Amino acid sequence: xxxEELIEKATSVIRPxxxxxxxxxxxxxxxxxxxxxxxxxxxxxxxxxxMGFCAEHGAIAAxxxxxxxRIKRIVAVSEAGRIIPPCGRCREFMQQIDKGNLxxxxxxxxxxxxxxxxxxxxxWDA
Length: 126
Hints:
Elements: H1 3-12, E1 17-20, E2 23-34, E3 39-46, H2 55-65, E4 71-78, E5 83-84, H3 88-97, E6 105-109, E7 112-115, H4 116-119
Parallel strand pairs: 4-6
Antiparallel strand pairs: 1-2, 2-3, 2-4, 4-5, 6-7
């Protein structure tokens, strides 16, 4: 699967909606490809009190549910169609799931890819 196809997969799950006052879900989509070649998708859930999670968390949870933990490539796309980098929490979460994920390709643009370790130079448990 190409980076462009992974971007399209992330975009395909974006369906923003308000589930109740102040709670927005689905305005960011994420797609990740595993070392085994599987693709897992997720969306963000934005709630009060920090109880929600990013789209990357949703995709990683789907991956773990299917017995995998190594991410080969990952991308998140906003409702506006903009590719967005993972937040600090997601960066740390990915490397905690599997140290090998520091070598994950993080897609930051149609022609820009960096390794997770470039975005997370000092993991807390290094």
